[in-house]
Amino acid sequence: MIRVVVADDHEVVRGGFAGLLATQPDITVVGTAADGAEAVKVCAATTPDVVLMDVRMPGVDGIEATRLLTASPAHPRVLILTTFDLDEYVYDAIRAGASGFLLKDVRAESLFDAVRVVAAGEALLAPTVTRRLISEFARQHRPSAPDPAALSALTPRETQVLRLVAEGLSNPEIAARLVVTEETVKTHVSRMLTKLGLRDRTQAVVAAYETGLVVPRSRA
C-alpha cells in the first residue's frame, strides 16, 4: 500500500486529489495539509511514501517544505504540483530534492501512475519535460566550472550516460545512441546514481549542469 500526503492551500484542489487517490486499491491518503509547515508536521506523524506538494503556499512554501522533508529521516518522495510546466519555482523545488512534478490539470490515470512510479523509486521527469527544464535552467543559471573530483568516481561510460541523461534522453534513446541494451543503460544509471550519492534521475540532471559536465545553450 502506497501512503500519500496531499499538501495544497486550496481546499478544493487538496480534497480533489485526495479523493481521486482514495479510489485506488493500492493507494491510501494518510493526511492532508494546507501549507508547508503543516505538511512537515503531518508527514512526521504519518510517514508517507509520497507527498503531493503545491509550490506556492503561504508561510512555509512547497520548496522549503520539500527541502525539510527530503532531508528528514523518513525522506518521503515529493511530487511537485504546479499550474504551469515551466513554473519559475519548479527548478528550485527539484534542486531541493523533489522527484518530479505534475501539472494540476493532470488526468486521473496519469496521477495514479505518477504516484506509483515515484513510490517505486523512479524519478517522474519525462524526457520532454527534462528538455524544457534544461532550457529554463540555461536562461536563469550559469553552470559552475567542471568539478573533476565530483565525477572522478564514474567510469567513462557512466560519465557518458550521465551526460545523455542530462540532455533529456530516455533509457531507450540512450540505448539506441550507445548501441547497447536498455538493461545495460539501467545498470549504468543505477551505478552512476550510487557513486554520486544521488536519489534519482532528476537529481542527476541537476548535478550534471551544476558541475559543468553539460552546458546548456542559452535561450534566445
CATH topology of the largest domain: Rossmann fold
Mean pLDDT: 83
Give the spatial strand order of the biggest sheet: 2-1-3-4-5
Shape: globular
Helix-strand pattern: EHEHEHEHEHHHHHHH
- Which stretches are poorly predicted, pLDDT < 50 over at least 5 residues? none
CATH class of the largest domain: Alpha Beta
Structural class: alpha/beta
CATH architecture title of the largest domain = 3-Layer(aba) Sandwich
Major beta-sheet overview = 5 strands, parallel
Rg is 17 Å
Strand content: 5-15%
User: How far is it from the N-terminal to the C-terminal residue, by CA?
Assistant: 46 Å
CATH superfamily of the largest domain, by name, is: Response regulator
Helix content: 40-55%
Can you tell me about this structure?
The chain has 11 helices and 5 strands. It is an alpha/beta fold and 220 residues long. Helix 3 links the parallel strand 3 and strand 4. It is globular, with a radius of gyration of 17 Å.
Summary?
The mean pLDDT is about 85.
List the helices and strands and how they pair.
Elements: E1 2-7, H1 11-21, E2 27-33, H2 36-46, E3 50-54, H3 62-70, E4 77-82, H4 90-95, E5 100-103, H5 108-119, H6 127-140, H7 148-151, H8 156-166, H9 171-178, H10 182-196, H11 201-210
Parallel strand pairs: 1-2, 1-3, 3-4, 4-5
Helix pairs in contact: 2-3, 8-10, 8-11, 9-10
Protein name: LuxR family two component transcriptional regulator
Pfam families: GerE, Response_reg
Domain Response regulatory: 3-119
From the structure above, extract its key features.
single chain; 220 residues; alpha/beta; Rossmann fold; Arc Repressor Mutant, subunit A; 2 domains; five-stranded parallel beta sheet; 11 helices; 50% helix; globular
